[in-house]
Amino acid sequence: MQFGLSEEQAMIVETTRAFVEKELYPYEAEVERTGHLDIELVREIQKKAIAAGLYAANIPEEFGGGGLDTPTWLLYEKELGKANYALHWTAVARPSNILCAGTPEQRSRYLDPCVRGETWDCLAMTEPGAGSDLRGMKATAKQDGSDWVLNGTKHFISHADIAGFAICFMATGEEDTPRGKKKLITAFFVDKGTPGFAVRDGYSNVSHRGYTNAILEFDNCRIPAENVLGEVHKGFEVANTWLGATRLQVGATCLGRAERAFAHSVEWAATREQFGQPIGKFQGVSFKLADMATEMKAAELMILEAGWKFDQGTASDADMAMAKLKATEMLAMVADEAIQIHGGMGLMSELPLERIWRDARIERIWEGTSEIQRHIISRSLLRSFGA
Ligand SMILES: Cc1cc2nc3c(=O)[nH]c(=O)nc-3n(C[C@H](O)[C@H](O)[C@H](O)COP(=O)(O)OP(=O)(O)OC[C@H]3O[C@@H](n4cnc5c(N)ncnc54)[C@H](O)[C@@H]3O)c2cc1C
């Protein structure tokens, strides 16, 4: 067992941290104020991220990415996660690992431009009537000759406004199982501009200003057979194999934001005086810090352990679910207590705390809600008893 960082990991953490502080923090206030991310600014930061070797760091080296192993990637995510989400996700993009599952032609058409920073991807599963229960999706793809014809609606689709294409999961049939009929799902690449494919503005969102979600509409959208990603009817298998660690990515960015809120809290507790002494002298404040530090440490160990197991091929669904659950719930607690320690100042946008508090809310919902993570964990405990 080894808990320390290697020299290389320490260097990546240091480089990413310095980049985030120098290139992302200065633009946060503007993005937060306007709720808008200027594409010229994105392009400027993107060039620097590529030059620093920080772009697409999750993608294997053989495909042009940084090739980080999972724990190192999560340490890098933790640093990026400290900054405004729209800025780090767009300007220091980590293309979806599912793009690596494509054929060589699909990789050169979709993965390579994302790695070079020429475009972005987005992933469309959720529908107005199918959220946690994704298999209940109604959007369909039907074969017509060698083409597929797509119909239906997806919503809450992150980054679809700037993405050059979407990876869309559609119902392509049904099979009989002992528990009744089960929908079969297939993943497809759909290029922006394909007739019958429209991207509409989504809803405005309390978390992550400057970032958008969109509604995708498919109206007899015809795409060729070569746009199938993976095997027909095996869309969820492709997703499970290649998107496995995205729950840890969410958790790792939460660790970073919690650390930022915590650093402000310690400094405030040590310097803000009331009743003639620093408020950190009052147990009502200092014990909050102790609990925050303990929760942060537990969450970080769980995220890194799950990442390590992921690379060993031994991570269970419950390991991933526990790590995501712990990190996202830890951030909610730390963000809330950070505001409490700061009193009224905690709610003012002069400090990043109200933003971290708002941004924390989404993390317990996307990539599987906290209830769904608990469901996965509890099933792993009870299944073998037939309960
Ligand atoms: C801002 C934002 C961006 C997103 N980006 C994307 C994206 O890019 N691509 C994409 O495909 N999706 C995306 N999503 C969708 C996201 O993954 C879903 O919102 C999430 O999975 C929950 O689905 P839902 O919102 O429909 O809630 P529902 O599934 O309707 O859940 C409502 C409530 O019921 C609970 N619940 C549901 N089922 C159970 C159960 N079995 N046991 C216990 N409780 C249960 C949930 O935990 C929740 O509390 C995004 C969502 C948001 C809000």
From TrEMBL:
Cofactors (names): FAD
Acyl-CoA oxidase/dehydrogenase middle domain boundaries: 122-221
Keywords: FAD, Flavoprotein, Oxidoreductase
Signal peptide residues on this chain, from the entry's feature table: none
Protein name: Acyl-CoA dehydrogenase
Organism annotation: Hoeflea marina
Pfam family, any one: Acyl-CoA_dh_1
Acyl-CoA dehydrogenase/oxidase C-terminal domain segment(s): 234-382
Annotated ranges, domain Acyl-CoA dehydrogenase/oxidase N-terminal: 6-118
Domain of life, per lineage: Bacteria
Keyword Oxidoreductase attributed: yes
Keyword Oxidoreductase among record annotations: yes
